[in-house]
Amino acid sequence: MTIESVPQFGFGTKAIHSGAPIDSTTGAVIEPISLSTTFAQSEPAKPLGIYEYSRSSNPNRDNFEIAVAALERAKYAIALGSGSAATALIIQSLPINSHIISGGDVYGGTHRYFTKVANTHGVEATFVGDLAADLEASIRDNTKLVWLETPSNPTLSVTDISKISQILAAHEQKTGNKILLVVDNTFLSPYISNPLVHGADVVVHSVTKYINGHSDVVMGVLATNSDELHEKFRFLQNAIGSIPSPFDSWLAHRGLKTLHLRVRQAATSAQKIAEFLSKSSGVVKVNYPGLKSHKNHEVVLHQHRDGLGGGMISFRIEGGAKAAAVFTSSTKLFTLAESLGGIESLIEVPAIMTHGGIPKAEREANGVYDDLIRLSVGIEETDDLLADIQQALAVATA
Ligand SMILES: *Cc1c(COP(=O)(O)O)cnc(C)c1O
Description:
This protein is of the alpha/beta class. It has 2 domains: 3-256, Type I PLP-dependent aspartate aminotransferase-like (Major domain) (Aspartate Aminotransferase, domain 2), CATH 3.40.640; 260-396, Alpha-Beta Complex (Aspartate Aminotransferase, domain 1). It is built from 14 helices and 14 strands. α1 runs antiparallel to α2 (59-71), α5 packs parallel to α6 (161-175) and α10 packs parallel to α14. The longest helix has 20 residues, at 259-278. The termini are far apart. The mean pLDDT is 96. The structure holds pyridoxal-5'-phosphate. Pyridoxal-5'-phosphate binds next to α3 and α4.
């Protein structure tokens, strides 16, 4: 019996025990790091065990993949060298002259890949602000894939995954064309949402964020229930070579074991901070899925575990870019830096940092104004984080 095959075990039990066998030769409770690049064979083409060469597969990567598959309720997971490598691999799996439809405010690097790289191998992308409303009208004969990030980055609008999946299923019924639904679940982590359960074909993560959670590994992962997709992606991963190292796989697996504790704590603090900000003068608008006033709060209640809003907040501050610069330079616990999902709290100004590469008009059409501030709430004490936000707001609005 393996832990991951017991359906009644809860998330935390699976996080700790999935892909974590006791070492059969030494009894080690924690797996060793398997650095060997090659594995001995008894006769030509007869490996002693299941491994041959570490690009093709490696024990630490296998174990991490087993754990992610268990947490995402997937049959398969494939770990990659970064979240961006996962995006690239999925898009490279499409035939030349494919069309893809992407949600409007996606991760900056995803936008860059779709507009500046995918086109060089014959894949064209259309961006749609509100997929739930406008997806159908954007579908073409050669549309092969829909890319959805929920909550979106950095404005945190939430999309109903099952609604998108139903639109694509109806299209397939009518035309016979299957369009894949890929959901980037980085912002919520598998603890809060499992997109495959809501009808996605593939879920992707930047492991760099919540899954590893300690800001010391760059890595990505994708997961699916489809045998056919899994085989295709596994072939490409080996052919392209976009793999994580054994050490990074081991570290990310260690990080994953506390995912439920970290995400629950971050979401609890974020909820309090968002509630404070939404009542404060000097704050124009707060985007946080856990607020009752959030425009997609109904979807949050059925799509997110316990209606949790996650650890990410964004808000507009009165006083424009200048006030945003003062606020983000005045926090003492929130470090001014890109990235998110770590144990330590971070703060940034998307318009000139993470989303600086997107043209201003397009950026503002998606709500990314110069006065927008994004928080990644970490797992320091809630009261300390709240006090830090309060004092920075006092400085910025003085
Ligand atoms: C960071 C991030 C990525 C890219 O992942 P890397 O590991 O940095 O390559 C993709 N999507 C989202 C939502 C992200 O936050």
